[in-house]
Design brief:
Blueprint lengths: L1 H8 L3 H128 L1
């Protein structure tokens, strides 16, 4: 069959083998060039996407830091609110005690006022009695 090919095209088996190797090398170079072209196009297409992803990652990191700060503030605010609730409960208890003391003082003041009124009435009665006694003493002289 090699002699037929040699006769038909005037090529020896060695020259056919070299021609085949050359064709394969050219094909490989063409394939490499095509892969390089495709790679270049894909990079050109993906570059804006990669930049957008980098921007998004930077924004995400910024949001993470802001969120961490916010979380810290939330914890502080929660602690402050809990302390304020404890303070309010303490003030309410104190307020009840104060109201109770005021009520007791009011009752004592009312009693003292009633006692003062009775004392004034007794004083007036004693003054009247003294005045009568003085009159009798003046008439008896």
């Amino acid at each position: 069959s090699s002699s037929f090919f040699n006769f038909q095209f005037g090529l020896s088996p060695a020259s056919l083998l070299q021609a085949r190797r050359n064709a394969m090398a050219e094909f490989a170079q063409g394939e490499d060039a095509m892969q390089g072209f495709i790679r270049h196009q894909v990079i050109n297409i993906l570059q804006p996407v990669a930049e957008t992803i980098q921007d998004l990652q930077a924004q995400l990191e910024h949001f993470r830091k802001d969120l961490a700060l916010t979380d810290g503030r939330v914890v502080e605010n929660k602690s402050d609110c809990e302390q304020q609730e404890r303070d309010i409960l303490a003030l309410r208890a104190s307020d009840k005690d104060i109201k109770s003391q005021i009520e007791k003082l009011h009752i004592e003041a009312t009693k003292d006022s009633e006692e003062l009124t009775r004392t004034n009435q007794d004083l007036q009665a004693n003054k009247a009695a003294l005045a009568k006694l003085n009159e009798k003493t003046q008439h008896n002289k």
